[in-house]
Amino acid sequence: MTTKHFEIIIIGSGPAGYTAAIYAARANLAPLLIQGAMPGGQLTTTTEVENYPGFVDGILGPDLMLEMENQAKRFGCTFQTTLVEKVDLLQRPYKIITAEETFTADALIIATGANPRYLDLPNEKSLIGFGVSTCATCDGAFFREQTIAVVGGGDSACEEALFLTRFAKKVYLIHRRDQLRASKIMQDRVFKNPKIEMIWNSGVSELIGEKPTGLQKVILTSTLDNSKRELELTGIFMAIGHVPNSQLFQNQLDLDSDGYIITAPDSTKTTVAGVFACGDVRDKVYRQAITAAGSGCMAAIEAERYLESL
Ligand code: NAP
After folding, report:
1. Looking at residues 218-223, what average pLDDT do you find?
2. Does ligand 1 lie within 6 Å of residue 203's CB atom?
3. Which of 43, 55, 80, 110 is least surrounded, with the fewest CB atoms within 10 Å of its CB?
4. Cα 142 vs. chain centroid, distance in angstroms?
């Protein structure tokens, strides 16, 4: 197995990772960016991005990520589309091990993002692709003229529900409280859409169905009085938040109780000097493409200053 050394390695290819790469590459640090299994990250599973500044008519998520990748390439960033299997941050230079190669770096920028959260019901994972999904953009078209549901009350749940009305006959939005967490504009769009019906104060307690026929119905449990009822559905989309991709760094960096990497106030510095974290892996508050990109810029500037100080 070969070992290649880089001044800066960036792990993760969402807006945080690519922005860090653009800044580090423009600073002549010739970074390596390890993209993971899904180059472009979560935005590659969305459609129109309407709130990223600079695109008056919006831009498709995958297109935005391709632009960022090409921008980093233009300044000399190297890419590897592979998964990091292990890191060693206990000694310098830091070791980053993939299935194929071992890399070393003087500074490391972690931008590994977050993954969708599931309800943790017994057969939930086995029904993925057979009625259970976390990505309306990816799977919505499979549910033409069917009755389906979205679980959650945030912006993601509203966005998914609205998108799914393009295909489905009816979309239930199942939320555990009597009020949505989503922004007012998204709530208004949901409430105005005749294909969406709200199911308030309810949780999904059982998924009924099996491979290969798929989901047939769900059992809803009231969060007010525990009463149960059945709902016939062929598809259910989980939109209940995310889990940070920080498992690689457990026991090497300080994580909070939800697994997010802890960074110093107003900084991307982690508890190990020379290791910086940006984007959704350290942000449970804003989680926007633009805030991820902003923190990627901070991480690159901080890493550059750290390298100068060595
Ligand atoms: P979120 O805002 O954290 O909302 C998660 C939702 O899932 C909440 O309504 C929560 O219920 C519910 N939930 C969590 N765990 C649950 C469980 N075990 N069972 C049932 N329900 C559960 O997550 P998000 O919607 O993914 O949004 C994340 C961030 O991205 C937010 O800042 C959001 O504004 C942003 N975002 C913006 C856009 C946009 O601007 N177009 C689109 C998507 C996301 P409670 O409300 O009861 O806690």
Report:
1. 98
2. yes
3. 55
4. 22
